[in-house]
Design goal:
Layout: E1 7-9, E2 16-18, H1 20-40, E3 46-52, H2 56-71, E4 75-81, H3 87-99, E5 105-108, H4 118-124, H5 136-143, H6 154-170, E6 178-182, H7 189-198, E7 202-206, H8 213-218, E8 222-225, E9 243-246, E10 250-257, E11 263-268, H9 273-277, E12 282-283, H10 290-309
Parallel strand pairs: 2-12, 3-4, 3-5, 6-7, 6-8, 8-9, 9-12
Antiparallel strand pairs: 1-2, 10-11
Helix pairs in contact: 1-10, 2-10, 6-7, 6-10
Bound molecules: guanine.
Length: 311
């Protein structure tokens, strides 16, 4: 059964399922509509995606990003460079994109081949075009709570969008709630904690050295899992009524073999979904939760960068 605004009530579990796929689609439609207005005013948002090497997962991600950009009506360019590309050439490409008035957003797909200093490349991207939000200027703006001027990393921004949507539907005020983020990466855990702090949550960041993860997680009214370990968060740890956002996208062995005889795999989150859904008030599935939001938020960031660029 479908409830309002991308939240699904299933008859056989307690939790509302937060349907990231449909929420992402509606965000993409809004971005496309706003882009059309900006284009009519003479500015077409432009996104450049840079892929170095042949990593198959990266190729799939980059293709999806380019497709979403076209769907939104953006000017979309992709630079595919060989794995043998040297750092100086990659930096020079980023500098040329910084100077290109048709490009408002630059994304260099990670991971970069060994031998290229990713930090140097990411810090070459102009902060105003840094639609991944990885540049220290954007990380700093987020850390001082100046979200209106920052470009916020896509996965935590998308997770926050889902969290707000679920809280609104449940009639929950995020202010004052205990939020626990499991994972302290610069790409997800730390920016997620900053966003929750900006919502006036009381925020704990747990990580691999946290002494008692189970009791830390059990305090969470809001739980964000971003560790990259399948089903690491047990259902029994979840506080009844919590909102659970599972950022984990882990490829694990599935059942049987595929058409070419290779063992099947499937995607699994960081949370034991079935057990957690019996206790939580709302939960994101994997796949179909945070994943689709990441690309939608990237488009939203590109639109933001284009609007700011246009003054
Ligand atoms: N590789 C995996 N996720 C991401 C992401 O969000 N941005 C970039 N640039 N590379 C990635």
């Amino acid at each position: 059964m479908k409830t309002d605004e991308g939240l699904i009530r299933s008859p056989d579990q307690n939790a509302l399922i937060i349907d990231g796929k449909s929420i992402a689609q509606s965000l993409l439609q809004k971005v496309a509509a706003s882009a059309a207005a900006l284009i009519a005013a003479g500015v077409r948002p432009g996104l450049a995606v840079v892929l170095v090497g042949e990593d198959p997962a990266s190729r799939v991600y980059v293709k999806s990003k380019g497709k979403a950009a076209e769907t939104c009506g953006f000017h979309s360019v992709q630079h595919n460079l060989p794995a043998t590309t040297n750092e100086a050439d990659l930096v020079a490409l980023v500098e040329s994109l910084n100077a290109d008035p048709l490009i408002h957003g630059i994304l260099v797909q990670l991971p970069l081949p060994a031998g290229i200093n990713s930090t140097r490349v990411l810090e070459t991207i102009s902060p105003a075009k840094d639609v991944d939000g990885f540049h220290p200027v954007n990380a700093g703006l987020l850390a001082i709570g100046d979200i209106a001027r920052a470009l916020v990393p896509c996965t935590p921004a998308g997770s926050m969008f889902l969290l707000r949507r679920a809280a609104r539907s449940l009639g929950v005020d995020l202010a004052g709630k205990e939020a626990v983020v499991v994972g302290r990466s610069n790409i997800v855990g730390k920016p997620m904690a900053q966003l929750l702090l900006a919502e006036n949550c009381t925020v704990t960041i747990a990580h691999s050295r946290t002494a008692d993860l189970a009791s830390t997680v059990a305090r969470a009214d809001i739980l964000v899992a971003a560790v990259g370990r399948p089903q690491m968060i047990a259902g029994a740890w979840i506080k009844p009524g919590a909102i659970v956002v599972d950022v984990g996208i882990n490829r694990v062995p599935g059942q049987g073999v595929d058409a070419t005889g290779r063992p099947q795999t499937r995607l699994d989150g960081d949370v034991d979904y079935t057990a957690a859904a019996a206790r939580a008030a709302a939960i994101t599935p994997v796949p179909g939760g945070v994943g689709p939001m990441t690309i939608a938020t990237l488009m939203s960031n590109t639109l933001t960068a284009a609007r700011r660029g246009a003054g």
